[in-house]
Amino acid sequence: MRYSDFQGERISLLGFGAMRLPLLGDGSGKVDEAQTEKMVDYALDNGVNYFDTAYPYHNGESELILGRCLKKHPRESFLLASKYPGHQVSETYDPAAVFERQLQKCGVEYFDFYLLHNVCENSLPTYLDP
User: Fold this and answer.
1) What is the largest CA-CA distance in the chain?
2) Cα 80 to Cα 3, 101, 118, distances in angstroms
3) Which residues belong to any copy of the NADP-dependent oxidoreductase domain (predicted)?
4) Which end of the chain has the lower number of beta carbons within 10 A, N or C?
5) Rounded to an integer, what distance in angstroms lies between the CA atom of residue 55 and that of residue 125?
6) ∠ at Cα 62 (61, 64), nearest 5°?
7) Kind plus residue range of the DSSP H or E element containing 61
8) What pLDDT is attached to residue 116?
């Protein structure tokens, strides 16, 4: 695996995105967690250390599933990114509470990277100070 250095972090050039995980074959639309776990293990075993998820992926299940799949691996063996869903939350949402819930769903104490999700003309006001 090839790596890049970003502000002191050694990041694999190939990352694992959890936006489109394998689904069960029963038509339920649910994620095949066993297959996802095999994929996560394979990625880590082959040098991938960057994992990316977000609040809305798989109807909110991606963070939970990726967190469970990564749980058995030492926290220092992977870099985890998630995203603030400003385009999905109302003005009454508390950003700190959303962030804490995402940490809980992923089963980690911190994110290595936390991004603003889907910043575009329609969502820009959500991200700007009033």
Assistant:
1) 46
2) 15, 15, 18
3) 14-120
4) C
5) 19
6) 65
7) helix 61-70
8) 86
Task: Render pLDDT for 6-44 as a digit per residue (tens, 0 to 9).
Answer: 999 999 999 999 999 999 999 999 999 999 999 999 999
Q: How many CB atoms lie within 10 A of CB 22?
A: 13
pLDDT tens readout for residues 102-129: 999 999 999 999 998 777 777 677 677 6
List C-alpha distances in Å: 130 to 1, 3, 11, 37, 89: 44, 40, 35, 42, 16
Structure tokens at 116: 């603003």
- 3-127 CATH fold: TIM Barrel (3.20.20)
